[in-house]
Amino acid sequence: MIPRTILTSEHEQFRDSVRRFLDREVAPHHERWEEEGMVSREVWLKAGAAGLLCTGMPPEYGGAGADFRYVAILTEEMSRRVFSGPGFRLHSDIVAPYILHYGTEAQKQRWLPPMARGEAIGALAMTEPGAGSDVQAIRTTALRQGEELVVNGSKTFITNGQLADLVILACKTDARAGAKGVSLVLVETDRPGFKRGRNLKKLGQKAQDTSELFFEDLRLPASNLLGEEGRGFEYMMTELPQERLLIALTAVAMAEAALEWTLDYTRQRQAFGRPLAEFQTNRFKLAEMKTEIQIGRVFLDRCLELHLEGKLDVETAAMAKYWLTELEGRVIDQCLQMHGGYGYMLEYPIARAFADARVHRIYGGSNEIMRELVARHL
Ligand SMILES: Cc1cc2nc3c(=O)[nH]c(=O)nc-3n(C[C@H](O)[C@H](O)[C@H](O)COP(=O)(O)OP(=O)(O)OC[C@H]3O[C@@H](n4cnc5c(N)ncnc54)[C@H](O)[C@@H]3O)c2cc1C
Question: Which positions are catalytic?
């Protein structure tokens, strides 16, 4: 086996504390959250108190100034346990960085400390019923009237949508312009004119609230613009590689876990007088999965290393996202097959992983769009 070289003993100690947190605060509740369609606000507060939210933010904004490997560890541990309910990753490592990178000092002071404590929950709303992959085609507008912006439109599939206190909204401040008309605004969800739609019923990730959001003549002070007007598209393109790396980290952790469950299962389960793991057809498939996951892990850790150096480019992040989520899909499908009928039962983690993982090939930029990004650089 090729050992992982990028983690120190401090990172591994952090992994132990994450495991203890998940055992104590998530494991006993996740099934109930799946039935209820969302997690409790309490787990957000507990994660904040345990220092697990916004770990990468500087200490002056409530974070720990921790490097991205800590984020990777939290992502790996939650993924291995198929704990897709708490939307910590999106909140801490997608929403908060937008505020840190493009926000004014006042916006950072207002939002980042309560986000790190789990008191304010963040969401990012780009997708609309009529525009997903083609972000430039969004129709939600935020048009100036004096010192205010008036927001109208709707969003769908928004992670943390039911719980969010703050939504970073992608909208058009110039409805006639394409990418250059896109801006980001901060929307507090207690403003009149903000409505939450349905908590959408999904194939997997059932404890994660994914929602429709509506904006009807919602008035915002112009100071709620995030960064400069007309530069929202550029900001999103800059931030997306980290989101894609996070999805890739989830994918490899879930594939590794799926293989471990399957090794255990096939060693124990007997058919025709032998453990399933002894049939050569299964042995070869297990060996192939082990090999492919190892190759994926080495590539991913190299991407992680580049990201730590600020050098992970759009193309490489796109390669990692599409290739590793497709590896994950192949591995989990094959592992489920080796579980037979039990693999189809939700009490087995492989069944939940199968349902949860499917969306990794769709969101964060679909895998077709990832190929497009790679092709553009050829
Ligand atoms: C569980 C879940 C959570 C989500 N969370 C969020 C969130 O928090 N915030 C947010 O803004 N969005 C979120 N999304 C939305 C997600 O990012 C979009 O679903 C995704 O970008 C695809 O957009 P779409 O669904 O409109 O599909 P479409 O863009 O309509 O695409 C449909 C199909 O056509 C393909 N396609 C599109 N364009 C091309 C092309 N040029 N070449 C080849 N094929 C193409 C796509 O790959 C896809 O297979 C979430 C989605 C889900 C399911």
Answer: 243
